[in-house]
Amino acid sequence: MGIEGHVPDTDTRLQELVLDSRDVRDFLAELAVLAAARLSGPGNTIHSGVTVLRRKRPEVVACSDAVAATLDELQNSFGDGPCLTALRTGTTILAADLSTEQRWTPYVRAAAGQGVSSILAVPLDLAGEAEAVLNLYSDRVDGFSGEDITTVEAFAGQAASSLRLVLRITHLRETRNDLAAAMQSRTVIDMAVGAIMAENRCSSDEAFAILTRASNARNVKLREVAAAVVTSIAGQQQVPTYFDE
């Protein structure tokens, strides 16, 4: 395959991706393109995909091109393959020649039908924050030598460090957004409780109980019932709430 050795500016480029990316999906999309560019060799174009699994969050998949996207989608549809195996086991998986490969038969046949001859899947160590794998596809038999695999694993280590940082930044952003939403919801509920107290001359506990009963009876979220109460009093379609970040 002839993958180039360690490229000195890979770390610099990865740092730029961290700074420039808006979210995890954006970072992964650029990472997939970077991997394909860095790991392709003379006469052997590499197609790249990256899959990330986070707890209680949707799976994120990014690919360098349509070929990689098709291959990743096929593997997910079959529910098995070298990349998913690498993800589950945390070990590098090589399928050197799809024409003789005995594992993952349905997927391998489909992948070979797309013109792919060898696949390399390398897990990214995210220190328990998530699970991820770098998927590389070659149209050449034995497209990944032992030296190539070492180079790819080194690249994966560099990428994992940057991805961990992106995941932490994203987690902080999501936590902030969740807190802001909770505070805004609390504000609307407090306003509705105050309005009910004034109209019914009752305590805050009694007013909150009235809101809760209305929410249960209508099978509508408490915040939505509260917003409707405030809207009916304020005469506004949208209730203003404020949260100082």
Automatic annotation (TrEMBL):
GO MF entries: kinase activity; RNA binding
Record domain ANTAR: where: 169-230
Keyword field: Kinase, Transcription, Transcription regulation, Transferase
One Pfam match: GAF_2
SMART domains registered for this protein in UniProt: ANTAR (SM01012), GAF (SM00065)
The organism's place on the tree of life at top rank: Bacteria
Protein name: ANTAR/GAF domain-containing protein
Species this chain originates from: Arthrobacter nitrophenolicus
Lineage of source species: Bacteria, Bacillati, Actinomycetota, Actinomycetes, Micrococcales
